[in-house]
Amino acid sequence: MTIQQPLDKGAAAADLQNSAAVAAPAATTSNGLPLPARKEPPPEKPSDVRRRSYIILSFWLIVLCLGLPIWWKTTTIYRADLPLQEMLDWADGKACRPVFPLRISIQANALQEQEAQNLLRLTQHALDDLNDFSGHHLRLQLAPPAASENRDHDHDSVLTIRLLPGETTTASFDPHAPVLDITYPPNTLPSPTSSSSSLATYVAGQLRSTFAEEQATISYLLSTNSIPSEHRPQGLSPDVADSLSKRTTRSLKYAPTYHLTFSLFTSGPLPSSWDIEDAIHQYMKPVLDVLSPIHNFTIDTQVQLYATPGVQNQVLNKEDLSSFINAAEWPLSPSIGGAPTINFVVFAGNQTIAVPPTQDSADSSGTAPAPHSWLIPQWGTVYLLSLPSDTAHLSSEALKQPLLTFTSHLLSLTGMPQSGSLPLRLSTLARIRSADLLLRASSTLGSLARLALALPSISIPSSVADGVSKTMAHLRLACETLGRPEGLAHARVAEAEAERAFFEKSMVGQLYFPDEHKIAVYLPLLGPVAVPLVMGLLNELKAWRKRRREAAEVAQGKKKE
Amino acid sequence: MRQFLSLFWLSFLSLVFFSPSAASAADYHEQLVLRPLPQSALLASFNFRSNTTVSEFEKGNFRFFPRSLGQILQHAGTRELHLRFGLGRWDAESWGARPWDGAREGGTGVELWAWLEADTDEEADRKWLTLTNALSGLFCASLNFIDGTRTTRPVMSFQPEGDHATVSNLHLLYGVLPHEVVCTENLTPFLKLLPCKGKVGIATLLDGHKLFDASWQSMAIDIRPVCPADGECVLQIEQTIDMVLDIERSKRPRGNPIPRPPPGHELPCDTSKPYHSHDTCFPADHTANQDWSLSQIFGKPMKGTCPLTDPTVPPVCIHVPDTRSVFVSEGVRENKSASGASRCFEIPPSADFDMVLPRPSESDPAANQTPDSAIVPPETPLLYAERSFTGHGQERGGVQTILRNPSPDAAVEFIYMESLPWFMRIYLHTMEARVVAGAGGSAHARARPDESSSLIQQVFYRPAVDRARGTQLEVRMRVPPAATVFLTYDFEKSILRYTEYPPDANRGFDVAAAVITILDPDHPGPRSDQGSPAAGAGTSSSSSRGSGGGRRFAAYTLRTTTLLCSLPTPDFSMPYNVIIFTSTAIALAFGGVFNILVRRFVAADEGPEAGLAVLVGRLKGRLLRGAGQAVKGKS
């Protein structure tokens, strides 16, 4: 092996001779002028070379085994484990199939046991034929005759049918209890052998029409959420769906407590006082009492003089109604505390509404056509009261019409169905609300799961995981007890927990740590430190490769020799 | 004649209309008191007061009482509330005593104190948080920034004004935001609380442009329960706006708001001076020719009266000597008071009201005697107070308050309260009061020690906790007649954390005004400190304030100006500088050590050649070789 090489051969020649790579490559210039010869350093001891390799290796080991894990540990964002798949299942409706088994008891004291059983079987059959929505199922049962003597209504069943013999076939609702009285002429009773009966068909038809609205509403709710289609009812006609969607957008989000604010706005200085308390007590309190199992209500009232409405026209068009409320000046701020506020505004002025009552306003106010009032979805009602200009005080009689309107609007704002007797409507409302809450909580869970998937850098504190597990537990319970009062309570808790988990404050803060900041923090340190480390590693690798080649050459040379 | 008849009809009709609600008419009243001050200033005090019975309030039936505020009070368990928005400085030297004896004003910024019903301190803190957050939304002010560091529980300075059945479970909390800039967005919600909404009555004169252009202004809301001896307890809300307008400034038309020097011939000159000539002018006293009208000053006339107001309270009053004539709109009745220094006007309900105060005529004998006789001379306040920083540098400082008792024969006893931010760490041992006898200040003799020690009678001090609460210092002091007292103490400025500096940190940090409550000598309120503060207070009702409700132990309240404390502020790009600096240092050290460990050292002539010459040579060689190849290729 030669270390010195002929100078005139130049660099190209040196490349050919592998062994000469250490020899000064800059020792020659292209014009071939000889440079003074440079001394070579003495050959390194192999132990030194090995030590250098160890040093570099240990630095890299420290970086990889200690630095990286520490960096990883200190900069990762805490993400609690969420049962993402399960949450998505809830949102897709795979986890729960909302089923409302409704039990209806039949009291037929005038009939023989045998006859009654037969009638029940036939009616159930007729009902099953009519029903096309498996989620909403009516099941008939026979009330024990002894029990029916002392109490009218069995609390396990949603409706009691009292069959009474009479002249003609009639049906009427009891106004105070969920009881349907059906009279029948004796000849309509089915014979034990017959497979059909006009009375059974009649009863089935009555039941069907009674629960038609509830069924439609629930199936609408299911269809607007992503419930798999096999659970959906089929024939929901577009106009029914349309009116249902209007009704649901109009009604407020469910809350256990609503705050009612009654405001008297007058365009001038008068009237400045009103007997609102008496009027509420007289005209509205009965309905509030009826609603009390589902909602609590708190009430306050105010009088505001010199109020300028948002629209000054004498005659209000349909477009003006939406901007009539002067939000900038009228003190209609929502109440503090958690309860949503429903506003009932009496405006004493001489403005009138031009449009004839449309379909909306006619069906929203059950008691009277409403030429003076209109309902503002999810907000409340405005009633225009025209008074003689010198009225200083509004008596409770003068407030009768406004308050009756407010009452009926309150029912539609709370999402109350419109047909049937009041007790029946109430129990229907409870079922609709629990279905609604269930679906809402499920979809919130789904949104949270999608959020967690979509934003990998968002932190998920353990309180969120906690909320999610609570939500799911209550959802499961609610799903099992749908249609019963506990179902509503569980759904309520589930919804509240889901909302709390979704709107967790500490999740948002971490979201906006931009990448530029990370670069600005890391680069000044990592750049200068990484350069010698990487260069050292590269040099060492190069030297190692050269040593191997040399060793191979030496071995080859020995072989040749 | 016809006018007279129509007027008659009007008043008759109004009588007929209001008779049904006459019983409740006393539930609301409003009054504007105008008071010309020396140096071309005008004090306008608006007062609106409405009552609601406690039972109606608890049922949530609001008529005159604003619902939005009522809900907040119910929600936060507040029994008595005082909210102040203040701007500017009251020039006591020339304007005299403050309106309402200082009871309806706050320091610059926002001040809030309230008595909350709570069983424990923690519950009170929670309710206080609710209250400040809700009020912050209602009044568009940053009241939600009143946190633990800005909240104190004064021991001596405040006493409830209302009648409370029990005081044992009431907690007084006091918060102040000196940095808050009071502006139009605070006035709008204030007006919304009024029953007549600023559409009629004296509130029509309130306009953000004029109000916030004033030399000094204060908006106050006071809510307190008042239990009359006979009848039901009522909850009273009193809204007060006081402002001192500069007449010259206010009269400037809106279209031409830039002040320009008047031409020479319009300058008001004192012609009695011997050197007065066409090119020399000694400015005449402003007050001598104060003439203005209501619509000039406020930009518009007043629109009628609020129909709900108590008919026995005249809506507008003015304090000028009876000798001066005041012109008013038609149909307005003038009632002069017996004292001869004020007159009030009864205004028909639906007519614009304007008032002109003309320049006192030359022939008027009263006006010519002294220039000040054109206005009612202002009262002398019980105490003058000034506060300022002393010392220099970024590390330490001092506060000096100069308290001057102008009265020649009566000592003044008062409570001086400071609520300081936690980053001003005061040294209580340096607190010192020294008296300088005589108001002139020429006799700078240090007072005798026994006299000096009797100045400070009682000190309540609650030291600050870093980042948790501020310093609270209450000092009961006594200033001898015709003496000036210097109250001084030193403090240390602490260094804040990087994130604790507000935007524009170099401006400095506002330090809230000191509250000075002068005790009523006839009614020594909190002398028996921890006992029931309201005991024995029932009999004294301050008739001087003219307001029926409430009673107080304080004869007079005043506040000093706020201070601007400059703390050492860092360079705010500091974190990145620090990161880069330390990173560079670490990288240098690491690179050096690493290279020493890894490189092999050889003699200079043994290693590969290095340096600039080698680089240049290599470059040259490459170029020449490239050229030579090109030549070869051609040949």
Automatic annotation (TrEMBL), chain A:
TM spans (from-to): 54-72, 519-539
Lineage: superkingdom: Eukaryota
Pathway named in the protein's UniProt entry: Glycolipid biosynthesis; glycosylphosphatidylinositol-anchor biosynthesis
Skewed-composition ranges (Basic and acidic residues): 37-48
Membrane topology, record value: Multi-pass membrane protein
Presence of keyword NAD: no
UniProt entry tagged with the keyword Transmembrane helix: yes
GO cellular component: GPI-anchor transamidase complex
Pfam families for the chain: PIG-S
GO BP term, pick one: attachment of GPI anchor to protein
Keywords of the record: Endoplasmic reticulum, Glycoprotein, GPI-anchor biosynthesis, Membrane, Transmembrane, Transmembrane helix
Region (Disordered) residue spans: 23-48
Cellular compartments annotated: Endoplasmic reticulum membrane
Similarity comment: Belongs to the PIGS family.
This protein's name: GPI transamidase component PIG-S-like protein
Species of provenance: Thermothielavioides terrestris (strain ATCC 38088 / NRRL 8126) (Thielavia terrestris)
From TrEMBL, chain B:
Annotated keywords: Membrane, Signal, Transmembrane, Transmembrane helix
Extent of Low complexity compositional bias: 531-545
GO cellular component, one term: GPI-anchor transamidase complex
Positions of the UniProt region annotated as Disordered: 522-549
Entry-linked InterPro entries: PIG-T
TM regions (residue ranges): 574-598
Domain of life: Eukaryota
Signal peptide stretch: 1-25
Any single GO BP term: attachment of GPI anchor to protein
Name recorded for this polypeptide: GPI transamidase component GPI16
Species for this entry: Thermothielavioides terrestris (strain ATCC 38088 / NRRL 8126) (Thielavia terrestris)
